[in-house]
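ok so I'm stuck.
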Amino acid sequence: MSQGVIQGSMREAPLPDIIQLVSQGGKSGCFHVQQEASRARIYLKDGRIIHAVTHAGEGFEALMEVALWLDGTYRFEELVPDVPATITKPNASILMELGRRMDEWRVISQKVPSVDLYPASTLLPGETPHGVNAREARVLALSTGYYSVAEVAEAMQKPVLTIAKDLYGLVMAGHVTLKGIRSGKPPKIDVPAAPQAAPQPGPPPGSSQALPDIREADAAGLSIPPPPVAAGFPENAEPFPETVGGGVAGTPAPAPAKPAPADDPQRMVKLMNFTQRIAQAAKMVLPEAQHEMVHRYQAKATQQIISGDGPEAVKNLALAISRGAVDAGCDADMVRTLNTHLKALFATK
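replied:
not stuck anymore, here's the structure
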């Protein structure tokens, strides 16, 4: 069983990158994903994603639910899947959507770190906030400290991430605070006689909204006992790559290490971990308008690592981001700061 197992932490290596790595090898098997009590199984057949199961459901929606799990662990086990094919979209679009929504949830979770917290309005009785739309007003009315974020979503019959987006804006505006303990009284729930005909299944995965375009999937069924999945998902305690390339922006580069062999998935994971660190360091310095450029270069580096370029792809990623910042017109001080951060990464082991 050890021959067909890849495992690690989603904090160190994003799950979409790991799934892509495994799918490139045309493998069949199951990803067991876990964050605290939440668990998911993602099945691949000949490299294609065909099925996913979580506590709340199955299929594409279940796979997108994993976008909420930023600190989870994964374990891929090679096997011949005996499951229905509930997912038919191509891997490229699935993984791009999953990665994008993880990025969006990473932003929202800075203010709404968990759907198990209890939102409570900070407004005085009778006070009417400005700039709040009709749905946000309903969220405010239900934010008495009694319902959790997930329960507010269930009461409003809306996907939990839609409500999390609304709460993100309300917290930023100072209208809502989040508590860790249930309090207050249960608010009156008006079943929405909304100007919509029959209940809709929800917008398609690619639909856009005012706040971050994030998956509309209901994760309210958190209390359902987990399915029988192998327990004890190990945390990845392995260090980042010992040496992954040269300098940045004119700094002399040490001799590049030997490229990782294409059949060494653990080594590839380490290299992709390092690309994640480079991208995070760059986004800390560069303005948000340049983050898409960083994502683009990181995706290219990931493809090169999968193709066997190894440390050379990691070094080129740092150089490409540095040059991209110059080409985008970033001022000299910002570019110097960026290069300092990137060189610091290569100086550590």
